[in-house]
Design a protein that fits this description.
Chain lengths: 219, 582
């Protein structure tokens, strides 16, 4: 066993085991030719990686809540009273889904170099996001008006927890949208910033659709 | 672009930006390390108080209100010891401390991918630590529901015990903050490792330490969000009157609690879905360090590098499938119990791969018994001793007998507690020269090792027998129970061992701070090691490599290569640069 290892290693000295040097694409090139390490800069795709990885953590957070929902509802003597979701949620859902399309349109225009169109549709997305959040608050007010509070029933507890957790994440998305529109970006290029924010926004859109279906069909 | 990035990395000048709110991963790593050092001192003091109380339950203690420790105060010690040790020592030091410091250097990067996020992670962790320490001084004192915070005890409030009011709330706030910080940290580790590797640093050329930190970060990313969700629901149960975890008809201290139909087991599921990966979060970095150090001081490549990397991934993957083995006695279906049992025992496979490959690495090596090597060997020893008892606990029938006894306490202290601590010690002795530019004292280090090694076995080996004899954990005073009273001499022995072992840690603390000031100057590569951190200055400059970023040409453990002049070939040497023997 040791013998085979030795011969292999001898060859390693001779051939250098491939790879290495600037020829390897494996260690990440920052698109500037010399690679991230040589310039000390963080490659732009790292921000995309970071966002996707971070959303993995966010997903686990929501899936924990969802599994708690399923388990809690299935408990014997769960005293679960199905909650009729406020009808305004249908409108909110449509608004949020549409905002994903306006965001995609905005990104396309950005890539085409149409600054004005980019800003217009980016603004539309932001406005739709605000409408969605206002709609969620209206939904809460409707529930409160009909006497359904956080502690009224496990179904209403989960409703408030889901909408609040998702709403908070969406507030973060709104701040990011505004930040891209109004603040110059430092470490990220604008292209990266729009991409990262888009990934987040589409994810929050999809997550909401999932939660809405869960509240609707799994009540 | 490039010039801008460099200006972003310009050396900070003020004390605050350099040492307090620093974005330099090396400073942040040391901050995490010092936080863990503070936490471990607190944790050890708490454990000594527990050990003392177990043997002399009626002793007069001047610092306790009323002179004698109450049973609730003992439970508060148990809770705080576990919480502080698991979160603020075993999670913080190996990953936040050494991972932060050495992951970027070992992969040839100038810093973490997101330095400001890194700083945020540390300071949120620090806030979490402040919150948990504050639990000692809030009205009612520290919580008593254990580091697992089981409901309904933790979910009702002050009526369940003195620390269950404010103290428990502080506990939940602290843990939630810790979750947030760990999520941000995990994200940073993963992004850094994926996108910031030096040219030629393929995944299969990474040091095994990086594999350990990488898989640990993935576990953290997937696990901490679940605990955060559980923590929020628990907080709502306590403060907003919801009933996620609290059942109907709960009567505590003759008071009917106004809750309906919640499930205490739901909390256990959420907690252990986090809690089991958490024990691997504590131990995987230690496994990486052990492999790294064993190879360096045996002057041999890691035996079966690829299998070692895959075993780390396998342990991480299986770690998510076995949380139910903490709940065998919760009345779960025997079928799920069986599945959890089989999956748990299957972790023995990658664990055995690691153990045998560690032994294979040592086999026939020219072993140098330096202090880091001793601690790495101690790690292997403790991991095996503690891991073997896990095979017994993995079987529901046996676990029914041993659950919540000292057998379990002995098991997890050896396998994740002390083993992980030995990983931290190995890392400290190994990397101290790189971090601070000076060597630690070898004689003191060896003295520290032998006292600690023998001492921990003296504490935890007898504990197995106490457990088998039916000694229940968390009982404040076993001497009042007839069949347990016979075990008191063993408890006395363990308590003496605990005090001696704790005293031995003063040697380490002295060695650490003395060497900071008076240790012999360290060269760039005092251990003749191969990985990238040994190619730069000790301590490394701000961007780690002084602008001269390495390319990687070979695997991480090329020791004793036939035909080469030296018995080690650093990763950054091109084939033409390797000096050949005649």
């Amino acid at each position: 066993m040791a013998g085979t290892t030795v011969t292999e290693v001898v060859e390693l000295i001779g051939t250098g085991n491939g790879g290495g040097g600037a020829s390897s694409g494996n260690g990440g090139g920052g698109g500037e030719g010399s690679g991230p390490s040589a310039s000390g800069a963080v490659p732009q795709r790292t921000y995309v990686t970071g966002m996707i990885v971070g959303l993995g953590g966010v997903l686990m957070f929501f899936m924990a809540l969802v599994s708690a929902y399923i388990v809690r509802k299935g408990m014997p003597n769960s005293t679960w009273v199905p909650l009729d979701v406020p009808r305004i949620l249908w409108l909110n859902t449509v608004i949020l889904v549409v905002s994903s399309f306006t965001l995609a349109r905005s990104r396309n225009l950005f890539r085409a170099g149409n600054e004005e169109g980019f800003r217009y549709w980016w603004g539309c997305t932001t406005a739709l996001g605000v409408f969605f959040l206002v709609g969620q608050v209206l939904a809460w007010r409707q529930l409160v008006a009909s006497g359904i509070y956080l502690q009224s029933n496990p179904s209403s507890s989960f409703f408030y927890v889901f909408t609040a957790a998702h709403g908070l994440h969406l507030v973060g998305g709104l701040l990011a949208l505004l930040s891209v529109a109004f603040r110059p970006t430092h470490r990220l290029t604008r292209g990266t910033a729009t991409e990262v924010v888009s990934i987040y926004w589409h994810f929050m859109d999809g997550l909401w659709v999932f939660l809405f279906l869960l509240l609707l069909l799994g009540r | 672009m490039s010039s801008h990035a460099q200006s972003a990395h310009a050396a900070p000048t003020g004390f605050v930006s350099k040492y307090i709110f620093s974005t330099d991963h090396k400073v942040i790593g040391i901050q995490y390390f010092l936080l863990a050092l503070t936490a471990v001192v607190v944790g050890i003091v708490l454990s000594l108080l527990m050990r003392f109380h177990l043997v002399w339950p009626n002793a007069h203690l001047p610092f306790v209100n009323g002179g004698q420790m109450t049973q609730e105060q003992y439970l508060a010690l148990v809770t705080m010891h576990g919480t502080i040790m698991v979160f603020f020592v075993l999670t913080t030091a190996p990953q936040g401390g050494f991972g932060n410091y050495f992951l970027p250097i070992q992969i040839g990067a100038p810093d973490m991918a997101f330095p400001r996020l890194n700083m945020l992670s540390f300071w949120v962790t620090f806030l979490a630590f402040v919150a948990i320490i504050a639990a000692f001084v809030v009205p009612g004192g520290a919580p008593i529901s254990g580091w697992t915070g089981y409901t309904p005890l933790s979910g009702v409030g002050e009526v369940t015990g003195p620390g269950e009011g404010w103290g428990q709330t502080m506990w939940i706030v602290s843990i939630s903050l810790f979750c947030l910080a760990s999520l941000l940290g995990a994200l940073n580790f993963i992004a850094t490792l994926i996108d910031m590797r030096a040219p030629g640093m393929t995944l299969m050329r990474m040091p095994l330490t990086c594999w350990g930190w990488f898989v640990t970060a993935i576990l953290g990313l997937l696990a901490f969000g679940v605990l955060l969700a559980g923590g929020i629901l628990l907080l709502l149960d306590r403060s907003a009157g919801t009933s996620f975890f609290l059942p109907y008809g709960l009567v505590i201290n003759d008071q009917l609690q106004n809750h309906s139909g919640g499930s205490p087991l739901l909390w256990q599921h959420l907690f252990w879905f986090f809690g089991h990966p958490e024990v691997y979060i504590a131990i995987l970095p230690g496994m990486g360090v052990a492999s790294h150090v064993l190879s360096t001081f045996a002057r041999k490549p890691v035996y079966g590098y690829r299998a070692m990397a895959m075993a780390i991934c396998g342990i991480g993957f299986l770690g998510f499938m076995v949380w139910g083995h903490h709940m065998f006695v919760s009345g779960m279906s025997p079928y799920s119990g069986f599945a959890f049992s089989v999956l748990t025992m299957s972790i023995g496979v990658p664990s055995a791969i690691k153990t045998f490959n560690w032994l294979g690495t040592l086999w026939g090596g020219k072993i140098q018994f330096k202090t880091p090597m001793l601690f790495a060997l101690g790690f292997v020893s403790l991991f095996v001793s503690g891991g073997l008892s896990g095979l017994f606990l993995a079987q529901p029938a046996v676990d029914n007998l041993l659950h919540a006894t000292y057998y379990v306490v002995a098991h997890f202290h050896l396998v994740m507690g002390v083993a992980a601590i030995f990983g931290i010690f190995a890392a400290t002795y190994f990397w101290f020269p790189k971090m601070f530019g000076r060597m630690m004292s070898e004689p003191l280090g060896k003295f520290h090792f032998w006292l600690t090694f023998v001492g921990t076995y003296c504490i935890f080996m007898p504990m197995h027998f106490v457990g088998i004899a039916g000694g229940i954990r968390r009982y404040a005073d076993a001497s009042a129970v007839a069949y347990l009273a016979k075990l008191q001499p063993l408890h006395l022995f363990m308590t003496i061992a605990a005090f001696v072992t704790a005293a031995a840690q003063l040697i380490f603390i002295f060695n650490f701070f003395w060497s900071l000031k008076f240790g012999a100057k360290a060269s760039k590569n005092p251990w003749n090691a191969t990985t990238l951190e040994w190619t730069t200055d000790s301590p490394p400059p701000l961007d780690n490599f002084g602008g001269d970023f390495p390319s990687v040409y070979r695997g991480p453990y090329e020791f004793s290569v036939p035909g080469a002049k030296e018995d080690f070939i650093p990763q950054h040497l091109a084939p033409a640069q390797v000096a050949r023997s005649k």
